[in-house]
Fold each of these.
Amino acid sequence: MKRWTLILTVFIALMVGMAMNLPVGQAESGQETTAIYVLEAVKAMRTVYAAAVIEKAKQDGVMPKENWAKEDHAIMLPAQFVKAVGREVRNFELGLLGIHPLYKSNKPQTGREKEMLDLLAKGNKKVVTFSDGKQFKGMSADFAILQGCADCHNTHANATKKDWKIGDFMGAIIFRMPDQNF
Ligand code: HEC
C-alpha cells in the first residue's frame, strides 16, 4: 500500500502548492484563474490515477473497488480519489457533482450550482466559474469517456439512471473557495 500513499501525498502537495502560489487577487479574474487552474490540476490527477495507477494495479491483480478499504487487493475508484483529496485540502473544497448522482453528497448544494450544472449539460461550455453566496466556484464537465464509466454507474445499487452510454455528460468536478470580494 505504501506506493499508493506516496503517490497520493505527492499529488496533494502539488495541488495545494499550486493553489497557494496562484494570483488569488481581489479581482474576479484572479479567482477565475485560480478555479480554472485547480480544476485543471484535479482533472490531470484523476487521469493519472485512472490511467496509470489503476491500470498498473490491475495488471498486478489489484482492482478499483468502492469498498476498497475493506477488501483485499483493492484500491479506490477515481471518484473516491478526487473526494479523498478534497477532504485533505484546507482553504477550498473539491468534489464531484452528478446529474443522476449515486450519493446525496454528489448533488448540487445550491440553486446556482444546479443552474450551472444544467448549463454545462447543454454542451456549449466545458468549464464555468461563478460567485455563489460567500463562495466562488468553478465546475468542469465530466463525461463517460470509457464504457467502464457507464457500466459501473448503470449497475450500482443506488443507480437511478441505468442507461448511461459512452460520451454522456455525467456531471462535473467542482471547486469551491471563499469569495475574495466578501
Ligand atoms: C467501478 C465503478 C465506477 C467506475 C468505473 C466509475 N465510477 Fe463514477 N462513481 C462510482 C461511485 C461508487 C461513485 C460515488 C462515489 C462517492 O461519492 O463516494 C461515483 C461518482 C461519480 C460521479 C459523481 C456523481 C455520482 O454519480 O455520484 C461522477 C460525475 C462520476 N462518478 C463519473 C465517472 C466517470 C466519468 C467515470 C469514468 C471515467 C466513472 N465515474 C467511473 C463508481 C464508478
Amino acid sequence: MEKIVDINDSPFPQSPVEATQYDGSKVIQFSCHKGISCFNACCKNIDITLTPYDILRLKRRLDVTSGEFLREYTEPYEMEKEGIAGVKFKPIDNGTACRFMRDEGCSVYEDRPTACRYYPVALISMRRQDEYTDTNSYALIKEAHCKGHFEDRSLTIDEYRKEQGLDEYDTLARGWRQLVLKKKSSGPTVGKPSKRSLLLFFMACYDLDRFREFVISAPFNDTYDISDETRNKILNDETELMLFAFDFQRQVMFGEESVPMKADALEKHMARKRELAEAQTAADENGENIQSE
Ligand code: SF4
Ligand code: SF4
C-alpha cells in the first residue's frame, strides 16, 4: 500500500509530527482554552492548507464571493511538481500570523478551517494506487510552545474529532481529498495535466462562484446532460454544487463517466480519449509524457 500523508497533516511550520500512527481510539491528553499561557501562540506562525469546504464556510462567514476570498485571504501553492494546486491562508502583511487572530482568540472560530480544528492531531490518509478507497490514521504534533499537552484532560482522538466538528468537515472534503490522493499516487501514469485541466481543478474546487457561472454557461450545457433536479439542487445549494464539482473533476482528471454527457459530445469525447490513449502508448514507448485533458 502506498502511503500518502494527507495535505492537512501539518498545519503549522516545522510541526514535529510524531512518527507513531494511531487509530481514533488513541487516548490523548490535551486541552486548549482561553487563559492558557500559550493562548494564540499557534496562530502567530501559520502554514494552513484549506479544503474546498473550509473556503465555502469562510466565504459565507465573511459574506464575500469565492473570488474575493481567494484574492484577499489566500495564496495558491503547488501540491506536487507540475501538478494540481492547493490553497493556503495568506498571513498578515510582513508577518507570519493569521489574519483572523485577535487578542481574544480566533475571530472566525465557528468556521475555522480543518487544519485548525485538527491541531494537535495530524490526519494521515492512505490509499491504494488508482483506487478511491482511502483509510485514515492519526499522529500527534508536539510543539514546545503548545502547553495544551500538559492540561489535565484525557479523551480519545475520535472524541476530540467529534468535539471539533470534524466529521462534517472531513465528510464534505472527502471527494476533493480523494482526487488529490489519486492524482498524487497515479502521477505520470495519467499524463501531465494540461493548463486547462489545472485551471478547471482550481475553479471547481476553490472558486465555487465562478464554477456556478461555468455550470450555467452554454459550453457546459452543450456538453453535459444533467437533469433538472440535479441542476436545481446544485444551483440552489452551494454545498451540493461543491460535491458536484468533485464528481465533475473525476471526469476531467481521470476520464470517469461521473457526469452524463450529451450524445454528440460523448462521441467526440470518446474519440478524443482514444486519441490520447494512442498518443500515451506511443509516448510510453518513447519514454515521454503527454498532457492529459
Ligand atoms: S483561523 Fe483562527 S484558529 Fe486558525 S490560525 Fe487563524 S486565528 Fe488561529
Ligand atoms: S494550547 Fe496549543 S493549540 Fe491551544 S493556544 Fe496554546 S499553542 Fe495553540
Amino acid sequence: MITEQPEGMQALLECYSGLLHVCDQLEAIADGLPDSFGIERSTWVADQLLPLLARAHEEEERVLLPLIGLSGHPQVRNLVNRLRHEHQVDEAAALDITETLLALGAGRPLLPPEATGYQLRSFFESVRRHVQAEQDMLFLLDNFTIDAKAKT
Ligand SMILES: [Fe+2]
C-alpha cells in the first residue's frame, strides 16, 4: 500500500483546514450580528483571512494545479484556468471582507447588519464549496496516482 503524499500536500491540507475554520468563524460572526458577533473574533478573522488565502493559493499552484495539468483530458486541464479565476475572485472578495470585519471590530460597521450578513455568507459559502471541490479533486488525483503506480 502506498501511503506517502506528494511533497507539499500536508501544507495544502493544513491550508484547507485553516480556511474552513475561518469560514466557521465568519458564519459565527454572521449569526451574531448585530450585537453578538464578537469583536475579538472579527479582528482575528480580519488578520488571518488574506494571508491564509494567499498561502492556500501558493500551495495549490505548487501541488494541486500541476497535478490537474498533467491530465490527458483537455476538460480536466481547463479546470486549472477556472480555479485560478476563482482564486482571483476570492482574493478580491477577501479584501472587502477584511475591510468589513475591521470596521465591525472598530464599532463602525460599513453596512447594515442584513447586508453585512449577506456579504459574509456569500463569501464563506463560496469558499467552502471551492475548498470541498478541491479536496475532492485531490482525492481523485491521489487515487489516480496510486492506481498508476500500482500498474507499473
Ligand atoms: Fe483553490
